[in-house]
Amino acid sequence: MSDPSEPGSGEDFDRRLHRAREANAPIEERSAHALPKSGMGLAARIGTELVVAVVVGVFIGYWLDRWLGTSPWLLIVFTLFGGAAGMLNVFRLATGQGYAAGYRTKGEDQKRGD
Within 10 Å of residue 79's Cβ, how many Cβ atoms? Predict the structure, then answer.
């Protein structure tokens, strides 16, 4: 006796997976390239990306310095790491790479034959 809620064959799974991907395609496209519509929104996001990355770097460096007694070296190093991470985030935002796994757009996937 088979339960109708149990998955069937591999073909049935592929068909259901294809339907689900088609239904979610517009959502995935919006989330992969979620840029603010206005210039002020983009500027706020860029500023936030930079500031938060540096603040996290400063916090980690300060905490490690206090714990290991290496003041101020780890604070300096992690502040630089935070700044670099913030600039990387802004670069990814400006180039439209988004935050999806692999950082590739659909056009790049087709060029490579993936």
Answer: 19
> Which pTM was predicted?
0.56
Report pLDDT for 1: 45
Lookup result for tokens 């149990």: 6
Q: What is the pLDDT of residues 87-112, one digit of tens each?
A: 999 998 888 776 555 555 555 555 55
Q: How far is CA 109 from CA 27, 85, 101, 102, in A?
A: 19, 26, 12, 10
Give the separation between CA 100 and CA 28, rounded to whole angstroms.
Answer: 9
User: Which sequence spans correspond to the domains of the chain?
Assistant: 35-98+105-112
Buried b vs exposed e over 53-71: b needs ≥16 C-beta within 10 Å? Answer: bbeebbebbbebbeeeeee
Instruction: Check if the beta carbon of residue 50 is closer than 8 Å to that of residue 88.
Output: no
